[in-house]
Amino acid sequence: MKIRIIPDVHGTHHWEDAKNKVNEYDKIIFQGDYVDPYDRYSTEELLSNFESIIEFKKNYPNKVVLLLGNHDLNQYILDEPMSRKNPFILSEMKRLIIDNIDLFQICIQVGDYIVSHAGISKTWMKNVKAKSIDDINKLLNPKDWFAFEFNGYDSYGYDKTQGPTWIRPEALLTDMAFPKQIVGHTRVNNSPQTIKEGNNELILLDSLNQDTIFELNI
């Protein structure tokens, strides 16, 4: 099985390379953060890009996986104060996510790896009473969205209490719920970057130039 993982989109169109090569892959996984770009994009272009990604999922429902990140779930659904928040797309982003919530998930297992936006800690799973990947994804509904709130003691996310849209690698590596994880969220100079500590393996994909091509063959 050949899998393509697309790190944080942030309004860019680098994901379209996978769309153009869709027949080459068995699974295409987006790691979220679909808007809030580092560069300037018009409101119309940001929303159009996100809508195109949703349409891509609808066209290939069994092949495309859409994960949510902090710049989606926390920023626009939970309305938390964060960097680069765009008030002009807030209501439409919320509508697009909620109307299509069945198309999104928090994490997925591929082979030995768990893929999410930021990573999954033992402490967070214990706090939300989740015992499996299925349990985590079932929390993605209005009555349980609070499980993904920013709830750590560090304003940047360096705390193992943080959830899978927010935790940072330094905290995650001390408390890995699953020994092999692939995340985006935290930008690194050279991507992919693999960190191994004992039996734990963490692969970071969110690169500074946002054009990472990462493939798994399992």
Question: Can you give keywords for this protein?
Answer:
218 residues; alpha/beta; Purple Acid Phosphatase, chain A, domain 2; five-stranded mixed beta sheet; 7 helices
Q: What's the helical proportion of residues?
A: 25-40%
The share of residues in extended strands comes to: 15-25%
Radius of gyration, whole Å: 16 Å
Mean pLDDT: 93
How large is the count of helical segments? 7
Strand order of the largest sheet: 4-3-2-1-10
Query: Spans with pLDDT under 50 lasting ≥5 residues?
Result: none
Which structural class is indicated by helix and strand composition? Answer: alpha/beta
**DSSP strand count:** 10
Domain module tally: 1
Shape: globular
Distance between the termini: 5 Å
Topology:
Elements: E1 2-6, H1 16-20, E2 27-30, H2 43-59, E3 64-67, H3 70-77, H4 90-99, E4 104-105, E5 107-110, E6 113-116, H5 122-127, H6 133-138, H7 169-172, E7 180-183, E8 193-197, E9 200-204, E10 214-217
Parallel strand pairs: 1-2, 2-3, 3-4, 6-7, 7-9
Antiparallel strand pairs: 1-10, 5-6, 8-9
Helix pairs in contact: 3-4
Protein described:
This protein is 26% helix and 19% strand. The longest helix has 17 residues, at 43-59. The protein has helices at 16-20, 43-59, 70-77, 90-99, 122-127, 133-138, 169-172, and strands at 2-6, 27-30, 64-67, 104-105, 107-110, 113-116, 180-183, 193-197, 200-204, 214-217. 39% of the residues are buried. Strands 4-3-2-1-10 form a five-stranded mixed sheet, with helices on one face. It contains seven helices and ten strands. The radius of gyration is 16 Å and the shape is globular. It has a single domain (2-217), classed as Purple Acid Phosphatase, chain A, domain 2, CATH 3.60.21. With 218 residues, it is an alpha/beta fold.
